[in-house]
Amino acid sequence: MLKYFKDAFTNYDYAQLLQSTSLLLFVIFFTALVFFIWKRPKEYYQEDANLPLDDNEK
Question: How far is CA 13 from CA 2, 22, 56, in A?
């Protein structure tokens, strides 16, 4: 299976374009994900952060 993907990404005329596009999309997605998580208010994570410490059942 890996050999198929290796051939698909290297053995044709526009391989460099596909590789560059894939890398660019990954970087954009990763940066957007980090930005999305970073901009959330701290209160958004407060309840989840205290879950292991809560003894009360809701």
Answer: 20, 16, 62
Looking at residue 28, its pLDDT comes to 98
What DSSP designation does 57 have?
A: -
Output DSSP code: residue 12: S
**pLDDT < 50 regions, the chain:** none
Q: In this structure, are residues 9 and 19 in contact, taking their beta carbons and an 8 Å threshold?
A: yes
- pTM as predicted: 0.58
Asked if residues 9 and 15 have their Cβ atoms less than 8 Å apart, the reply is yes
